[in-house]
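Module 6 notes. Inverse folding takes a fixed backbone as the condition and produces residue identities as the prediction. Think of it as a translation problem where the source language is geometry and the target language is the twenty amino acids. Below is one complete input and output pair. Work through it position by position during the lab.
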């Protein structure tokens, strides 16, 4: 096995170890020493593969985003119906899928928002993947609001996501205001449906 193969194998071991720690204990539990032990390497070997822990965490978070995308399903961007209410239904379906993922993968989901890079800069490859996933929201939103396009559509999609994320975050936070699952799902649907219909009405469609 040559050097590149060994590095590739160690990279996969480190990613796997980091995923296990984050999924089982949460992002705050991720320490270089435990990570090295889980991957069967020296602490210094981590930095021969990743320049810092930021790169490793972002790689794990990217895999979490991929896992979420898989949970949504391959037909997520296909409209359920071409009319306005169909677009609202699609937004609700995405929001409920987001809630279900957060419930099923709580620690991994929280790690997406807990991590802050040491330099405060998110790599372009990670931003690109985030932007691609926001297109799932943009597609039905564009049908609701035909006048929105480009940066305006992207901003509105992110605002809609922020509303949904806020409800999900607070509803799942046991220290603040944990909400029973069925009630939380009902609130997510009610709010997203109201927002979707309101946006459509405001656009004159």
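Target side of the pair, the amino acids:
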């Amino acid at each position: 096995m040559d050097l590149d193969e060994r590095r590739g194998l160690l990279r996969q071991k480190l990613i796997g170890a980091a995923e296990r720690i984050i999924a089982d204990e949460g992002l705050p539990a991720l320490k270089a020493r435990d990570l090295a032990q889980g991957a069967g390497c020296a602490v210094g070997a981590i930095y021969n593969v990743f320049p810092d822990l930021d790169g490793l965490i972002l790689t794990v978070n990217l895999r979490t985003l991929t896992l979420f995308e898989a949970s949504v399903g391959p037909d997520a961007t296909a409209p359920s119906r071409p009319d306005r209410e169909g677009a609202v239904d699609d937004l609700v379906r995405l929001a409920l899928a987001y809630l279900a993922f957060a419930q099923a993968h709580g620690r991994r989901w929280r790690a997406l928002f807990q991590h802050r890079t040491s330099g405060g800069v998110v790599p372009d490859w990670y931003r690109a993947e985030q932007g691609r996933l926001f297109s799932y929201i943009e597609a039905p939103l564009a049908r609701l609001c035909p006048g929105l396009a480009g940066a305006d559509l992207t901003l509105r999609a992110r605002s809609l996501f922020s509303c949904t994320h806020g409800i999900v975050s607070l509803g799942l936070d046991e220290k603040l205001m944990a909400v029973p699952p069925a009630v939380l799902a009902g609130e997510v649907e009610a709010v997203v449906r109201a927002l979707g219909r309101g946006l459509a009405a405001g656009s004159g469609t």
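Reference fact for the lab report: The domain at 1-50 is CATH 1.10.10.60 (Arc Repressor Mutant, subunit A).
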